Known about the structure:
This protein is mainly alpha-helical. It has helices at 7-28, 40-56, 71-77, 103-136, 138-149, 152-158, 164-184, 187-203, 208-223, 231-255, 263-270, 278-296, 301-335, 337-345, 367-381, 384-400, 408-427, 439-459, 464-489, 515-523, 568-574, 578-585; strands at 92-94, 98-100, 532-535, 547-549, 563-567, 600-603, 611-616. It contains 22 helices and 7 strands.
Amino acid sequence: MKKPLRIHEHVATTLLAGIILVSHLALGIPHIGSFITADEHYWVEERIPDYFDAWARLKWKKTLINDKPGVSLALVSGPALLFHPGGILSCRTVEGHTSTCDPAVTSSLYASFRFPILVTNALMLVAIFFAIRAFSGTAVAFMTAIFAAVSPQLVGMSQIVNPDSLLWSSGALAIFSMAAFLTTLRKRHLITAILSLCLALLSKYVALIIILFLPALLLGIHLSDEDSEKVGRRLQRFLGTVLTSFVPLTIFVLAAPGVLSSDERIIAFLSADTGNIFLPWGAFAASLAVTATVMFARIPKRVVRRLDLTFRWLLAATGVILVLSIMTLIVARLTAPSWDYEIFRRIPFDIKNISDAKYYTDKRLTPTDVAALEFSPFVYSLPAAVLILGTAALFNRSLRVMRDRTSVIPLLMALFIAIELAAFAGSGIRTTPRYVLLTLPIFCFPAADTAVRIGRALRGRLPERLRSFTLPAIITLSVFASLSEFGGNAPFHANFANALLPKDDLTAHAWGYGGYEAVQYLNSLPDADHLTVWSDYYGVCEFFRGNCLTNYTFDKEVTRPDYYVLTRRGMFRYLPRYDDWEQKSGLTAYRYYDSADPAWELDVTGKKDNFVKVIQVKDDTL
C-alpha cells in the first residue's frame, strides 16, 4: 500500500507543477496577438465557427471541418466565439481590393482564439509531470516538463491556431500516461491516456502512429517487469492497451460524426490520411498478436529471456542509430559547406514532396541526403542543451540496457521518435519543424534523465553541506541554457533553430512573423490613414489602419501603393510570375527584394535571409 504524501511533499509537488504552468504561460502570453501565420484565418474565420454551426443545425456531415481534421481546435478555442461571434475581423473593403482594419480588434480576436490553446498546453504539461513522476520520479518528471515548457518551438506553436498546436501536447501526454499506467496500473493514468489520445486524433490523423506504438510500449514494459509472472498484471496491461487503442476512435466519431459521411473520409481517418488502411492496422494487429503471445502463451522461460534480450538489443540499436545520426548531421553540415549548400540551401524546406527536390538542385539525392533532409528539422528544433543532454542519455542508456531495467523506458521513447521520423521519410513527405513537434517533448524525457543523473553523480562527490544543492543547481543551469536560446529568438518562437545550425541556414520562413512590427512602423507615419500598402504575405493588412492589399492583380489606374512590405516567404510566391503581375497591375515589387536601403527592415531571429522589409515606392514605378 502506497504511503500518503506528507504535507511538505504536497507543497513541493504543487510548487513544481505551478512553476511548469507559469513558465509556459509567461513565455507564451507576450506577443500572442501580434502576428498572423498562414492559414490561421481559415480556422478563426471559417472552420471553428463552422463546427459549432454544424452542431447547431444538426448538419453531421459538416462537423468534419478539415482534412487534418483540427476538430480539437474548435473544442479548445471555441469559447472565443462568445467574445468574437463568427471570428470576423473589423475590416472594411475599399474598391474591392484594399481593406482598412482596426489593429486593436485584430490583436484581440487572435489572442482570444490562441489563449485557450496556450492554457490547455500548459495544463497538459502539468499532467505530463504527474504521469512521468509515476514511473521515473519527481526530478525527471519536473525536468522533462520544464524543458518542454520553455522550448521555443513548443511555446511558439502554443500561440498559433493550428492542429499541430494541440497535437504535440496531447500526443506526448498520451504516451507518458500510457507508460505510467503500464508501470503502476493506476486507472487515472489509463483514463488520461485515453482522453489525451482522443484529443490528439481530433487534432491530426497522424496521431494514429501513437496507437501503432502501443504494443511495443506494452511489450517493453512487460519484459522488463520483475512481477510479470502475475496473470492479473498481464491482463490489466493488455486490456488497458486495447482500450487505449480503440476507445479514442469511438470518441472521435462522437465528436466528429461527419467522418462517417463517405468512404473517402473513413479511409482517411483509419489510414492516417495515407489511403492505405491495411498498412497501419495490419502492422498494429501483427505487433499486438506477438505481444499477446509473449504475455499469455506457455512459452519456455529461456525463450522469453531470449526475446527480452533481443528486444533490448533492438532498443540499444535504435538509441545508437539516433545518436550517430544526430552527431553525423551536425558535423557534416558544419564541416562540408558545399554539401550543406546543395542539400539545405538550394532545396526549399517546405516543398510538399521530397521528389520535388529535383527541381532545385542538380545533385542526385542519395538515401543519405534524403535522410539528412528529413532528420534535420528534428535536430535543429530542440534547444542545444536539450539535444546534447538527450543524445548523451541515449548513448548511455544504450550501453546499459542489457543489465539495467530502468534504461528500457528512455529507449522506448527513442524508439517512438525513430518510428515517427521513419514514417515521414517513408511517405515521401518533406518534413518540416511543424511536422516533428510531437517528437520534441518526448526527447525532453531522456534529456531530463541525463540532467538528473549528472546531479546525483556529483552529489556523492561534494561535501555533505553542499549535496542538497546539487540537483537544484543542475536543474537551474539546464533550464537557463534553454532559456538563453529562447531569449535569442523572442518573440518569433516558432521560427526557432538552435545554435548548432549553420549561421545562414533556415528551417522555416517567417510565416507571418514580423508583419505586425512592420505595421507598427507604417502606423507611426503621419499620414498612415491615407497610405496604401501592398504586402506579399499574410499578417500585415490585418493590423494596418490605412489601405492595404495582398492581391497581385488590381486596377493600376485606381490603386497605387505607397509602400511595399516584402518578405522572404512572399518572394517565393510572387517572383515566379512577377512579369504577369507587372503587365496586369503595374506591380514592380520584384525590383525591391534586394534593396539595400529599405525604410524599415527586420531579420527574423537574426537570420538575414529571413527578412521583412518596408519599401517606399518610387514615383516612376508602382
